[in-house]
From TrEMBL:
One of its GO terms (biological process) is phosphatidylinositol phosphate biosynthetic process. SUPFAM superfamilies: SAICAR synthase-like. It comes from Vidua macroura (Pin-tailed whydah). GO terms for cellular component: cytoplasm; nucleus. Keywords: Kinase, Transferase. The gene is Ip6k3. Belongs to the inositol phosphokinase (IPK) family. InterPro entries: IPK, IPK_sf. PANTHER family: INOSITOL HEXAKISPHOSPHATE KINASE 3 (PTHR12400:SF40), INOSITOL POLYPHOSPHATE KINASE (PTHR12400). This is Kinase. Its EC number is 2.7.-.-.
Amino acid sequence: MVGQSAEPRAAVLLQPFVHQVGGHTSMLTYDEHTICKPLVSQELSFYESLPLAMRQFTPQYKGIVSVHLKKDSLGNLTLIASPGLGQPDSCGRLDSASGDPAVTLWHKCKWSHSQVSKSFKDSCPGKMLLRTDLQYHTDSLLEDANGKQPERKSYNPWGLHCHRQHLNRMSSKHNENKLHQFLLLENVVSKYSYPCILDLKMGTRQHGDDASEEKKARHIKKCEQSTSASLGVRICGMQVYQADTGHFLCKDKYYGRKLSPEGFRQTLRQFLCNGNQLRTDLLEPIILRLKALLAVIRKQSSYRFYSSSLLIIYDGQEHKESVDQHLPFPKTHGTNPSRVDVRMIDFAHTTFKGSKSNPNPTPHDGPDHGYIFGLENLIKILQSLLEGK
């Protein structure tokens, strides 16, 4: 039962999700197994009427939470979630960060280098660091007190970049007391020590049915100038653990947009390279899971997953014992879901017949052929890597 507990739930300080590799919406950590993001009615409608067959390929939907902005005397912004009714009890009681959350160093609009590094150390095992070659255009991501940029070596700044923009937008548009609704979703990388994540924008069309002419033209151009048109898939972000250096190698959406089909193939190969070798042991389980997803998508009539992403995930830390466990079995035993995962995310522009948020969507018949085209090409490229081509 929800809300039967005698004591009220503690407020939860939301922190940036450090493993966000793509997208532009700020993803926040709610607890170890749960992330949250601003609620979009079309996405909520998708999760509420999710076809059973798709559940193994999407994050588990955990409910809705109210969030408000808080500003301390120094002007530092924090986001606070207030668990209450409408939230599944499975999330358990959560205690907020110790001390007054308003004075946390986390949500300053300019984070210092040491704070960012510390937060990564707290959230990641060992001395895990992220190396990045992200190139930001006008946005200088982090500055020290003198306005100089520190070296961007030890973290993947994409999530922080999205989070800072989100805080700035919220604080300029709304007062502190305004409650915002956020979706609670399963953190699909929580079980991995060193999550290697590839974020792929799927399909040959990215604009939703509701897009303005200007937005439509912009998205069509992006697709035509990238592998979205030729392959039905483009890279939106990536982090891959390099065992030789102990860092993550990161790529962002600007890198992904510039790739040719051959560059896409090379980056896919790089995603499976741990700095020492190509993780060929992961190819078959990933291919099998993509084929299972393809079979499900082919059966979903009227669904169009415009602008949604597909995550491919594995653990960058090779656990010797888990590899050894698989030796006596035939190769197909590698479908063990804990070794690799494939999940669809981001459904703000997904449309389907009977959608509550959009009762009269543009009618689409049959399955999403653009998405299927992308999945088929992805499988072909991975199979060619498996065959050593």
